[in-house]
Amino acid sequence: MRPSYIAVMHISSRAARSLACLLLLSTASYQPALARDAAVESNAAAQVPWLYRGSDVPPDLEWKFGELSNGLRYAVRKNGVPPGQVSIRIRVDAGSLYETDDERGYAHLLEHLVFRQSKYLQEGTAIATFQRLGAAFGTDTNAETSATQTVYKLDLPNATPSSLDETFKLLSGMVTAPTLSTQNLKADVPIVMAEMRERGGAAQRVQERMQEVFYEGQPLSERSPIGTVKSLQAATQDSVRAFYNRWYRPENVVVIVAGDAEPAQLEAYVKKWFAGWQVPGKPIPAPSFGDPVPPASGQGEAPIGRTEIMVEPDLPPSINYAILRPWRQVDDTIVYNQGLMIDALAQAIINRRLESKARAGGSFLTAQVNQQDVARSADGTFVSVTPLGDDWQAALLDVRGVIADALTRPPTQAEIEREIAELDVAFQVPVEQRRLLPGAKLADDLVNALDIRETVASPEAVLRIFRESKPLFTPAAVLEHTQQLFRGTVTRALFIAQEKGSASSDALRQALVQPVKPDQQVRTAEGPPVSFDTLPAIGEPGQVTSVQNTGLLGIQQLSFANGVKAMLWPVQEEPGRLTVKVRFGGGYREIDPKDAPYITLGQMALVGSGVASLGQNELDQIATGRKMGFNFDVKDAAFEFSAETRPADLADQLYLFAAKLDLPRWDKQPLERAKAAAKIQYATFATSPQGVLNRDLQFYQRGKDPRFQTPTPEQIDRTTPEGFRRVWEKALSSGPIEVQIYGDFEPAQAVAALQRTFGALEPRDPAPVEADTAEIGAPKPTDDAVVLRHHGDADQAAAVISWPTGGGSTALPESRQLEILTQLFTNRLVDAVREKLGVSYAPYVFATWPVDLEAGGSITAMAQLQPDKVPLFFDTADEIAQDLITNPPSEDELTRVVEPLRQQVTRAASSSAFFMQQLEGATTDPSRIASLRTILTDYTQTSPAAMQALAARYLGQEKSWRLAVMPEKATGAEARK
């Protein structure tokens, strides 16, 4: 069963991986109590819901399940997060594995055609229609196709009876009566082909080759949802209709709705608009997806099959191998889930040991074991290794040594208890935060459960089952399940090498069968647990010198004698959710440009370098069974720590943050590992246009300021532990300090914890910012594009055009009006570029406005496209900009932008996290509090004339700056107008 709710949480990486594997959760020797509970819940229902037939998992009674006479199934439930929103998912049980050889790509092509035109939507009007209903395209309205399903998604904000009725009507027409015409095929096939091109490059090649190698002999080996050029170009309205008629049937469709409406009302809409859907003929069974094919010869419990070397010079070397077993549909019972739970514990223990070995300076940077059921085609155990250096055999040998130890000796009970504690808090948090559960997440969880043919359970049932299962979590049981995870029909492997000849298929095969000595050194050492009680105090508790009401939502501002300021907002409506942010120092502005490489390394290694007497492993250990985090970010004018935590853990979370500022530790190994990772990653940026933009766009947009440059391997090599400490010791000791605590907490306890931690710090001066580094630059307008190169496919390019705007908090209302202008630009660009240039949904426009700086903002438009279309993209963007300057938008065009923005802001404002972000820095800049009061009107009250004036102020060809990312074989002239 899938938990009905998995919170977004910051837990250790090992627990996160365990949780990912354990999304299908259940119990152990739970039988008597659970059987009684299941019986009571079953008797409370009129009948066993269709999802739970054949299962003894307790149904989540908040879902109301039903079936129509035509075979369509549905599930609806009331949910008020965010208020007013209703999330609709229509799942079709058909993906790329349902296609014949001649139909490859049809499932995904249909996804596009369904949006193009249908019974109640004229050609090309879907986006505009849903925008008028308040749903933003790409976020609130979307769809996805996988190997096994196609899902249509809509999050309808401000749902009313009339808008819900209209939405169900439109969606029903899309799914039950799309217009699959030749004309629409001619419009959509080029867009799908563009999507195929944009997804290309080294990473896509690796994914396709891995699929081909791992699933050799099965349809999955050659069935990518994007399809093939040949099959897509040969598509006709008759062939596409044949695929549609075969799989788009009521029996294959499930409608899932969760939102702020009564279940009976939602059920009525489903019946009204889908009950009349009738199709001729009997349903066709799903095709066979096949089983992993054993090798013709081989020995052992998972004999070695295909091993292959793939050369990709710009990707880091990596070894991936899979132990594959046949996938079989199971009855999602408690006993079945007991095994999954022990599997997850087994993987978590191995992964913790692998991480410990990597941290200690092993021969590999990262390694991981992960069990997955893949596309109902294989049950696989996957091992991935990123070697350090050229000796990949040593890296693989070291990883296999850790696994061999897990296969030959049971773990200690202490190791098991540590992973149990991690999982316990992971399942307790959803219970505490149940009232905060978004309806969209609930609907998506049910979609995923249907895809893997399993059930869902309430957070309370999951936690209860897990806790009553603990007697089963014994060393012997974990050893047995570890051994099962590494048995299979066949083992296959793919090695991504950077140089031809650095490895061979035979050498890889030999490395996998070579006898290996179990590595016992990485087992978790037993000893007294690390405790916060043993850590040194920050100092004498500080005094609160003032308490001020901000006049906004009950938020209070505290000042301490040492200059630290805090903003506190206890929110009873968010039980179990608590967020802490700490801003300090001067951010990018504080760092000397000569020290720029240390910015990247700090973001990767500063937290891991330790706190007080705690190294990286001790930090993990002290957080075991707790909900604590330690995120670090560098912003324009401040550094920031942040974490999601719980009321019970708030005091210790504050201690960790304060101790990092006052008692930093400087372990060298996290820095050396970060340097290795940064160097390995650097080459990967050049594999695609998007990678180059990720590497360089901010650098160019900030006037080639070295602090925004992705450091090269040569620059990384020149860094030292002494330099790292010099830069970050200075940053950690600088002020001012602002602490934000928002969510579920007791104010008196929070203040006391602040006094013992941040209030106890020594007073500190504001961050020293040199005059010549205080301002962050911007590029000068130019007609000629900056041309960068990528090493990827020759038919891929990217184009960027940007107009400078402004910055600072005093002009925040104007920055919000610019967001309206940006959305107007986006709508026009999507329409123009998709039709003119044949690109997919990639074109987009975004605005930035640095609140902490007086300049540096921009409006930026970009798209991925073919190299020869780059000049046309620039021309199109210029035309749109000029038209916005010359002609005001229509009232309807403005409504299509403003209404989705209104709904986005309204929904976001239902969470304290929204206000927390808006008020960052408000303790030193009170104007941010005042500007928050006008945020909704700033985003929604405007006029066509106001937009025209704003466009005239900021847009225009003479004000723009542009950049093109071209393949190496192209010439610079191709990017120029």
TrEMBL record:
Would the keyword Nucleotide-binding turn up in this protein's UniProt record? no
The organism sits in which domain of life?
Answer: Bacteria
Give the signal peptide, or none: 1-35
The reply on keyword Signal is yes
Pfam families (UniProt xref): Peptidase_M16, Peptidase_M16_C
The record's annotation in InterPro entries points to:
Metalloenz_LuxS/M16, Pept_M16_N, Peptidase_M16, Peptidase_M16_C
Residues annotated as domain Peptidase M16 C-terminal: 236-420, 722-899
Which keywords accompany this UniProt record?
Answer: Hydrolase, Metalloprotease, Protease, Signal, Zinc
Q: Where is the Peptidase M16 N-terminal domain?
A: 85-221
Query: Per the similarity annotation, which family is this?
Result: Belongs to the peptidase M16 family.
Q: What is this protein called?
A: M16 family metallopeptidase
Which species does the entry assign this protein to? Novosphingobium rhizovicinum
Q: What is the lineage of its organism?
A: Bacteria, Pseudomonadati, Pseudomonadota, Alphaproteobacteria, Sphingomonadales
